[in-house]
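The instructor's notes for this session suggest beginning with a concrete chain rather than abstract definitions. Hand out the sequence below and ask the class to guess, before any prediction is shown, which regions might be ordered.
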Amino acid sequence: MRLIPILTALFVTGCPVAIAPQPLLLTSDHYSWSCDDYPDFSEVVVTTETCDEDVQYIVAELQIVQGPTWKTNLKTNFEGDCLWEESFLLTEEYCVEVEGVALTAYVD
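After discussion, reveal the predicted structure:
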């Protein structure tokens, strides 16, 4: 039972203990991403939809072929919105160089 260790930590330390959200790797059927090349940059748009109130935040990880990996948090337009979305703007890479995107949801 999770309550007893929390109460024990509260009693011993005198302050509440924060429980870190647990990572949950999302499979590709739970999100989508697209990439468009423009004259001066490329844009990768990542979206997913969840109304699960246990989700604290969602992290997108973009992998470039033989290149760097970037991470960013997806955002919603307002609290209670089920659509989570974010963009990566690439100034030196093209869509053909994007290996893929992975999403991890952090839940209570």
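Then share the key points. Residues 20-107 form a domain with the Immunoglobulin-like fold (CATH 2.60.40). The radius of gyration is 18 Å.
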